[in-house]
Write a structure and sequence with these properties.
Distance between the termini: 88 Å
Strand order of the largest sheet: 6-7-12-13-16
Number of strands: 24
CATH class of the largest domain: Alpha Beta
Structural class: alpha/beta
CATH architecture of the largest domain: Alpha-Beta Barrel
CATH topology of the largest domain: Anaerobic Ribonucleotide-triphosphate Reductase Large Chain
Helix content: 25-40%
Low-confidence stretches: 427-432
Shape: globular
Number of domains: 4
Largest sheet: 5 strands, parallel
Mean pLDDT: 82
Strand content: 15-25%
Number of helices: 19
């Protein structure tokens, strides 16, 4: 029999030693129950051919373990994660044993993927070495497969496509940067506590701001909501917007507003092919630009009454094929009080095509109004364009997928609306100032001053309204169209901002203020040394 050879990282071929890779699998399943090492090995066997690289062989083992993840054999998700962890460490260190943390930081300085100038301006090498003692690399074995896959793909620093750090190093560096300016006695406490919270999954890192905190990259924006609509033009525009935002470093929330498979198009001339093809396209756009320290990242929000709800919940799991799954986007199901009322009574949920119920999604956080509109739709929309399903089937399926994937999320919209300071349907975060704030506008090309609270959606739609703004590229004042606005509740928290000339404005903590020295800064994050650009003339 012809001998089998493995190509090592250095390019050399050596004879395949099955026992060596059996040890990797045995380590991955250590302490787990109901896991078969031989099944993982046999699942990878068809991929092992002469000349296979050691990385390809490891990937085959990872895939074999991941393919065996089921509701009843969930420990395979831990085995697959441990095999993936072996692969990550080999890529970062060249071996499974971690590198000295200070040496790792200096390597990042040499190759310019860490902002070590900032780090060493606030910490001595001795302090960094002392903090390195708190790292617990064994916590990498606490990951499930989907969690570690997401961390590797979206959070760990990369350079030239290669991963340059492991999760524990990422967690410690992020908190070192986050608390760098704290007094020495306080930051010792918070660095330790922050690392513990991150490394044991008590908190997550959802924003580019946090993910990129230890890097040289500073040109980023945070989470954005994309509302694709449901016609050719808006769906095409959403593609363009997603690509631009991903390139700018944004994390995306995408609202599922597409009518659904089987829905009529042009009064029945065509039937809709469903959400999957469209969101597969958005998935590819999300990954079309690799951002510093992560791939593009997005979460799609699906309403519980969508005709395709059962399909959405399995899009992220490890079953099925690439053609029937969307694994590189996260998925969230939006629920509300009506859903849980019916769940408690073991009643049905009625599913609709979204083009038949355009008006009800915005009322999901208003129980009384939503219930009225939802029940009216149940009575009036033709039965052939409805489908009944037990609320328990939907929720239990969600729980199962949440357990298996770790990346199936939810939003309870009544609860969000109750605790939010917004008076309008929540579709994205926005800037806000008090209603008595005077702004300069052009109304049908006529200059005038107006109070913020005199503006409303009908007023803006019925008049050609432009607001005095600043073009930051050339520092010129311009009048620009209003792209979005929202009303706040009367009891929203307010801050008063005053510049050196005594100019004052009142605004909410998340209102962005432009500064000469730091660009856009949230009002709550301003400091005395910021050079404000407040023009009240």
């Amino acid at each position: 029999m012809k001998s089998m050879r493995i190509k090592k990282t250095n390019g050399k071929l050596e004879e395949y030693n099955s026992r060596k890779h059996q040890k990797y699998v045995e380590y991955a399943i250590d302490g787990l129950t109901g896991i078969s090492a031989s099944e993982i090995e046999m699942g990878a066997a068809p991929s092992i051919v002469d000349g296979i690289t050691s990385k390809e062989l490891q990937q085959a083992l990872i895939k074999s373990a991941a393919d065996r993840i089921t509701e009843h054999e969930s420990d395979y998700q831990i085995a697959a994660a441990r095999l993936l962890n072996q692969d990550i460490r080999k890529e970062v260190y060249g071996t499974y044993t971690p590198r000295d943390f200070l040496e790792q930081v200096k390597l990042g300085k040499k190759n310019k993927y860490y902002d070590t100038k900032y780090l060493f301006n606030h910490y001595t090498e001795k302090e960094i070495q002392e903090f390195s003692k708190i790292i617990k690399y064994e916590r990498d074995d606490l990951f499930v497969y989907s969690g570690l896959k997401k961390t590797a793909g979206s959070y760990l620093v990369r350079q030239h496509g290669e991963i340059k750090e492991t999760p524990q190093e990422m967690d410690l560096l992020i908190v070192l940067f986050a608390f760098a300016k704290y007094p020495t006695n306080l930051r010792k406490k918070w660095v330790r506590e922050g690392y513990r919270i991150l490394s044991t999954f008590e908190a997550s890192l959802p924003t580019p701001i946090m993910i990129q905190l230890r890097t040289m990259f500073r040109k980023f924006i945070s989470c954005n909501l994309v509302h694709p609509g449901d016609d050719n033009e808006t769906l095409a525009n959403a593609s363009k917007i997603i690509q631009r935002l991903v390139a700018a470093g944004a994390g995306l929330g995408v609202a599922n507003t597409v009518r659904g498979e089987g829905a009529d198009i042009d009064n029945g001339r065509l039937q809709h092919t469903g959400c999957l093809p469209l969101y597969k396209g958005y998935e590819k756009l999300t990954k079309s630009f690799v951002q510093p320290s992560r791939d593009g990242s997005s979460t799609v929000y699906h309403p519980f009454f969508h005709m395709e709800i059962e399909s959405f919940m399995v899009w992220g799991n490890a079953k099925g094929t690439e053609e029937t799954r969307i694994r590189d986007m996260d998925h969230a199901i939006t629920f509300n009080e009506l859903f849980f009322e019916r769940y408690a009574k073991n009643e049905d949920i009625t599913l609709f095509y979204l083009n038949d119920v355009k008006d009800i999604t915005n009322y999901m956080g208003d129980h009384k109004e939503f219930k009225k509109r939802y029940e009216r739709a149940e009575e009036n929309i033709p039965k052939k364009r409805q489908r009944k399903i037990k609320a328990s089937v939907i929720f239990e399926s969600f729980i199962d997928e949440r357990f298996l994937q770790s990346r199936e999320y939810t939003a309870f919209l009544d609860n969000i609306a109750k605790h939010s300071m917004w008076n309008l349907p929540i579709i994205m975060s926005n800037l806000c100032v008090t209603g008595d704030t005077i702004i300069k506008i052009k109304e049908n090309e006529i200059l005038k001053d107006i109070r913020i609270d005199e503006l409303n959606i009908d007023y803006i739609r019925n008049n050609n309204i432009k607001v005095l703004s600043k073009d930051l590229d050339n520092s010129k004042d311009i009048y620009a169209n209003i792209t979005n606005f929202a009303l706040m509740s009367d009891d929203a928290e307010l801050l008063e901002i005053e510049d050196e000339s005594g100019n004052k404005i009142q605004c909410t903590p998340d209102h962005k203020i432009y500064t000469q020295n730091r660009g856009w800064v949230l009002a709550k994050d301003l400091v005395e040394t910021d050079e404000l650009c407040i023009n009240l003339s």
